[in-house]
């Protein structure tokens, strides 16, 4: 919601897509999600820029292993910096810019096969809540946007929105978003 309020033209694109697929007096349903391709790209882009679990959950090496010339000794604790992968300019063009369009071709997903976007981890310990989270995040954001127009606090312009983040096991906004719904 913060990225969309900061990028009003992208908020309009999400709204237009919702109105073209769901009648105004109808609620968004689970079966609509796969048809909301722009919203899907917005959520992937949000996961790239603001991964909810920025270092995954700590893993441990089962044996000594060498990867890319680096020796990882048995029992070493391994933190995977998903946040840095999402901001790496060798992987992403304009990594600090919020551009859902980069995902519109549908080639990259967060289901654990595309290592540039491992929001939910990958492999044996991949997040078992991924499918529930996928449905809930799409349904919540779509419902909020389909039913209301959203405004920032009076006097705050989109480009002034504080997007600083606070690290912990999970990543959250340092300054909570204040947004006001306006029924249309
Ligand atoms: C946007 C929402 C969510 C994100 C981004 C997320 C992300 C993650 C990540 C990155 C991991 C660690 C994976 C790894 O280290 O390889 C994880 C583990 C886990 N997640 Fe989620 N998660 C989300 C929602 C949920 C939900 C809704 C549930 C349960 C209903 C859930 C349950 C778990 C559990 C139980 C683990 C530990 C799995 C294990 O260690 O074997 N998560 N999650």
Characterise this structure:
The protein is α+β, with helices and mostly antiparallel strands and 184 residues long. It has one domain (2-51, 84-183): Cytochrome P450 (Cytochrome p450), CATH 1.10.630. It has helices at residues 2-6, 8-21, 37-49, 82-86, 130-147, and strands at residues 59-60, 65-67, 70-72, 77-78, 148-152, 165-166, 172-173, 179-183. The strands form four sheets. The chain has a two-stranded antiparallel ribbon. A two-stranded antiparallel ribbon has the order 2-3. α2 (8-21) packs antiparallel against α3. The structure holds protoporphyrin IX containing FE. Residues 52-53, 56-57, 119-121, 125-129, 132-133, 137 line the site of protoporphyrin IX containing FE (HEM).
Entry keywords:
5 helices; two-stranded antiparallel ribbon; oxidoreductase; 184 residues; binds protoporphyrin IX containing FE; Cytochrome p450; alpha+beta; single chain; globular; 13% strand; 30% helix
Q: Termini, distance in Å? A: 18 Å
Radius of gyration computed on alpha carbons:
18 Å
Q: Find the count of extended strands (DSSP E, 2+ residues).
A: 8
Strand order of the largest sheet: 1-4
The CATH superfamily is identified as Cytochrome P450
Structural domain tally: 1
Poorly predicted tracts of residues: none
Subcellular location: Membrane
Cofactor: heme
Pfam family, one: p450
Protein name: Cytochrome P450 76AD1-like protein
Can you give me a brief rundown of this structure?
This protein is of the alpha+beta class and 184 residues long. The protein has helices at 2-6, 8-21, 37-49, 82-86, 130-147, and strands at residues 59-60, 65-67, 70-72, 77-78, 148-152, 165-166, 172-173, 179-183. Bound molecules: protoporphyrin IX containing FE.
């Amino acid at each position: 919601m913060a990225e969309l309020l900061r990028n009003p033209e992208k908020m309009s694109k999400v709204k237009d897509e919702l109105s073209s697929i769901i009648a105004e007096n109808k609620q968004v349903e689970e079966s609509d999600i796969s048809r909301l391709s722009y919203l899907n790209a917005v959520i992937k882009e949000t996961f790239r820029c603001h991964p909810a679990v920025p270092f995954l959950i700590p893993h441990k090496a089962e044996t000594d292993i060498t990867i890319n010339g680096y020796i990882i000794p048995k029992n070493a604790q391994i933190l995977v910096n998903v946040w840095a992968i999402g901001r790496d300019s060798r992987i992403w063009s304009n990594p600090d810019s919020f551009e859902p369009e980069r995902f519109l071709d549908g080639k990259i997903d967060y289901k654990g096969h595309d290592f540039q976007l491992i929001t939910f981890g990958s492999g044996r310990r991949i997040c078992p809540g991924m499918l529930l989270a996928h449905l809930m995040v799409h349904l919540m954001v779509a419902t909020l946007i389909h039913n209301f127009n959203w405004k920032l606090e009076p006097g705050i312009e989109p480009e002034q929105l504080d997007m600083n983040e606070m690290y912990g096991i999970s990543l959250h906004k340092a300054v909570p978003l204040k947004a006001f719904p306006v029924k249309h």
